[in-house]
Write a structure and sequence with these properties.
The complex is a heterodimer of chains A (286) and B (368). Chain A has 286 residues and is mainly alpha-helical. Chain A is 71% helix and 2% strand. In chain A, a hairpin with a 2-residue loop joins strand 1 and strand 2. Classes of the chains: A mainly alpha (286), B alpha/beta (368).
Chain lengths: 286, 368
């Protein structure tokens, strides 16, 4: 008996490592978390009672605090995503169309540089910059613009700033990668037909670059809404975001079932965000 | 052509590429030999599950040298995390456990702790109020030794807050300090501190007291500039974002006082919460003898002095004979300890029902 492998068979077999990886490190942990979300923590012990109590607690516990935490998370994340796009798009545009090719590589390295710093260190650095005796407050004092030191840290503003600093760079890369794929002939054709620079941008460049914006915005949304470190360090617990509420259940209370239920709700939000932006997500364009 | 000075040339020749590579290879070889010989020499290893203060090499090295062993430390940040780690481990993986004293009975109940040789422990030198036998003994058997303690009290900046005011609990909600108060974010000691300030003893808190404690917390939240963990509130004090840390204490400032002498801590007249951590040996450890020796070393005057000032956080040694230098005694307010111990209340751990209610109040406070 002879075994014969067709190209299609080999292609199917080639998928197995990816399937195995996804099963082991995504599907199984997710299933475990889902199962845990139906358990109960009673007298310090976790019992699988297949209850919906943890999901009900999301709406009822502590006077609706968890719902408010989700709303806070959405507000902060959406604000950070929009601001990041507003910072990143002009930067990517200049990089793609205004900077000579020989300087692009250096500028790209400069853009990536902040990623090489530890996330925690970067957040604490911002806290020092924004503190009452930080550089911003001291400069404003020296210029006579304020009479008393002003502290900008430990606030929603600081959290959003921390997110924008990090994610604007990520968005710049995804948008830049998209912009340089747009053929020059499209823009030249529009110009030949009488469009001015603004019209070329508005009717040609911007629509064609939206997949890059969408991918970057989606990544920013997913990473920011699940982030615990930045709001914890820069937000000063002035308000609670959902990842902080989740950590509160684990770190202090070891209430893994409730933490799992809250995590599943967070995952649901991310899934909705994915479905909303799915039409625009064309990874091959980035 | 530019000339080159003699020393410069000598240096250049000495460090040509080949010599640097050879030197690197040689040092790597020698280094590996050293590592191998040291590992070979260290006949035994102890695996310790600890709070971060036990990771300081200055604390561990004297024992490693004296007993020719290697100490591996794994730090954790909360008892829940430690329990999760233990549940994922095999029996025998761990030898020494450093845990909050209030959690010792639970660990003994789970069968995790080994009996310690009571007679060999320096009980006579441990502050009497810290013996707390109900935590460290079960059925007359000793399972853990109190090794370090401190207070959730008030930390403050002397330049901004007079010590006389910091010695009164009401400073925690004094509108004069609006926007300059940091609140430590561990709900149990902080809520108990607030209760003390309101005239409620921590061990008498019931669910009926929680509404008034919540109202006071919400009042405090309006005055607070930050609510956070230890590094966060420390950072607030250092950067001027806060002048007071509610439920702070020696652990949050004494290691910073050398750089900033204005930082200080004190126990208010109304009292404070006394935390304590204990050290014991895992029942499943296969190195009981060496692990017990490590416990004895930690409780010795030298071990206690090193533990008190270990790099992660400083606090009081439970051994009153700890070899503390005068400058350390001063920042730890060592002379005031008898009075502070008498005026403070041990950590009160609520039952599951009260705990859940307290967590709910705390979550509302965080969200406010």
């Amino acid at each position: 008996m002879r075994f014969h492998f067709s190209r299609a068979d080999l292609r199917d077999w080639g998928l197995w490592p990816a399937v195995l990886w996804t099963t082991l490190f995504f599907a199984l942990p997710l299933a475990a978390m889902l199962a845990m979300s139906f358990a109960e923590r009673v007298a310090g012990k976790i019992t699988f009672t297949w209850t919906l109590a943890n999901y009900a607690a999301f709406f009822t516990r502590a006077g609706g605090t968890f719902v408010q935490a989700l709303i806070n998370s959405l507000e902060v994340t959406i604000l950070a995503t929009i601001l990041s796009i507003l910072v990143a798009y002009p930067l990517a545009y200049i990089l793609a169309y205004r900077v000579p090719a020989k300087w692009r590589r250096i500028l790209l390295v400069l853009i990536v540089l902040p990623f090489w710093t530890s996330y925690v260190i970067r957040s604490y650095s911002w806290l020092l910059v924004l503190s009452q005796n930080g550089i911003i407050s001291q400069t404003l004092l020296d210029l006579g613009l304020i009479a008393q030191p002003v502290g900008l840290g430990n606030s929603r503003f600081a959290t959003v700033l921390g997110f924008v600093h990090f994610f604007a760079m990520l968005l710049t890369l995804t948008i830049f990668a998209n912009l340089i794929q747009i053929k020059d002939s499209y823009r030249r054709a529009a110009a030949d037909l009488g469009a001015n620079n603004w019209q070329v941008f508005w009717h040609v460049t911007l629509p064609l670059s939206l997949p890059g914006v969408a991918v970057g915005a989606f990544l920013t949304f997913v990473l920011a809404i699940g982030d615990y470190i930045t709001p914890q360090i820069l937000g000063g617990n002035r308000e609670l975001l959902l990842p902080q509420a989740i950590m509160l259940q684990i770190g202090r209370q070891a209430d893994f079932p409730l933490a799992s239920a809250l995590s599943m709700i967070l995952m649901l939000v991310v899934t909705v965000a994915f479905l909303v932006s799915a039409k625009r997500l064309k990874m091959e364009r980035v | 052509m530019a000339s080159e000075c003699k020393p410069c040339r000598a240096v250049r020749e000495a460090f040509n590429r080949r010599s640097v590579l050879l030197a690197g290879a040689a040092s790597a070889f020698v280094g590996s030999l050293g590592l191998r010989s040291r590992r070979a020499a260290a006949a035994e290893e102890l695996n310790c599950l600890v709070w971060c203060d036990h990771t300081d090499p200055a604390l561990l090295e004297p024992f490693e040298q004296a007993f020719d062993c290697k100490i591996n430390v794994k730090e954790y940040g909360g008892t829940g995390e430690a329990v999760a780690l233990l549940e994922q481990s095999q029996p025998g993986d761990w030898d020494v456990f450093v845990v909050d004293s209030v959690d010792v009975p639970n660990m003994v109940e789970k069968g995790l702790m080994a009996e310690l040789p009571d007679a060999e422990m320096p009980w006579a030198d441990i502050f009497p109020e810290l013996h707390q036998k109900q935590l460290h003994y079960k059925d007359g058997k000793l399972y853990a030794m109190p090794e370090k303690f401190g207070y959730n009290a008030l930390a403050f900046n002397r330049d901004k807050v007079p010590e006389a005011e910091a010695r009164k609990a009401a400073v925690m909600w004094d509108p004069k300090y609006a926007g300059r108060i940091a609140i430590y974010d561990y709900y149990i000691p902080t809520m108990e501190m607030v209760a003390l300030g309101m005239g409620i003893r921590p061990d008498t808190i019931t669910k009926d007291d929680l509404p008034q404690i919540r109202d006071k917390l919400l009042e405090m939240k309006k005055l607070a500039s930050v609510v956070g963990d230890v590094p966060t509130v420390q950072n607030a004090l250092i950067t001027g974002a806060a002048d007071i840390i509610v439920a702070g204490g020696e652990y949050s400032v004494v290691n910073l006082m050398k750089e900033n002498p204005a930082l200080d801590w004190v126990l208010p007249a109304e009292g404070g919460i006394r935390w304590m951590q204990a050290i014991g040996v895992f029942a499943s450890s296969t190195k009981q003898k060496l692990a017990t020796e490590f416990v004895k070393y930690i409780l010795s005057p030298d071990g206690q002095a090193r533990l008190a000032t270990s790099s992660c956080y400083w606090a009081m040694p439970t051994n009153s004979k700890a070899s503390l230098p005068d400058d350390i005694k001063k920042v730890l307010r060592w002379d005031e300890q008898p009075g502070f111990i008498a005026a403070s209340y041990p950590y009160f751990i609520p039952d599951a029902e009260l705990d859940a209610a307290m967590q709910e109040v705390w979550t509302q406070f965080l969200q406010a």
